Amino acid sequence: MSTCRSPPGQTPLHIAVVNQDLRLVREMISRGADVRSPRTTGTYFRWSLSKLLYFGEHILSFAACVGNEEIIRLLIQRGADIKAVDSLGNTVLHVLTLQPNKTIACHVYDFIESFDVAVDGVTAEMIPNLEGLTPIKLAAVEGNIVMFQHLMNKRRLIQWTFGPISSCLYNLSEVDSWGEDYSVLELVLASKKNEALRILDLPPLKQLISLKWNKYGKYYFRILSLLYLLYIITFTLCCAHRPLKPLDRNITDPRDTTIFIQRNLQEAYIKEKDRVRLIGEIISVVGAIIILLLEIPDILRYGAKRYFGKTVLGGPFHIIM
Fold first, then answer.
1. Which of 53, 213, 265, 286 has the smallest C-beta neighbourhood within 10 Å, fewest atoms?
2. pTM of this prediction?
3. How many domains is the chain partitioned into structurally?
């Protein structure tokens, strides 16, 4: 006969919540079960890509993931903290963005948020985890299109509607790269999930990118392209007109095809054209140093592993050049 055991680190109240036994949950709470501080322990409950389920560590996050509103309401009324974080810094709202059933997760997200009260102007959805990600940023990084679109719609303010046409305003805090250390736009580009790039096609991100490109991006791109072409042309001309002199020794090996050799430093800068080439060489060296210095802040910002592994950020090409 086989036996079925629960994963280590769970309290009896966790098990009752997962089994959606409302009567047993009520009975345990009435007998003094703590709903504020108990947390599951052990690596079984830690988030990783190999885990099929991630319910967090707190009682409330377990109830949220199974989607039982009666248990959620009961736990919150008895003192469960919506802003409580687990060992990864995730609140219950973070945990919901990582659930496979995205439709239920969106519904439960709104349900829990209706109980949330701002403390010193901070709500649960404004709390970042240990990676600095709020729920909306985590949804973007994970490529959770359903949750991200749902959270963006919650930020939408409808100005007016006329039949099928409507005018909306969106709160772009945390979304736009202006004034944000890690905005949604940057996080999506640096994400390891290919699904995350599809978020850029959602409103209002698509309109925002188009606006930024037409107002700033295309001019910045054209200037950089022009400077890059001039730099490469200068570098190429310096290489093509490098200081060479005829070989002054006899060729003894038939496989030796060398007919010119490099001039020494005293002979390299004598003529007027040599001085012109010197200017081009200085431009080449200074330009390479400037490019390197411009890339260092991005390496420090994203980390070497993520920077070199993501070609959309530049990858190794700029550093190699």
1. 265
2. 0.73
3. 2
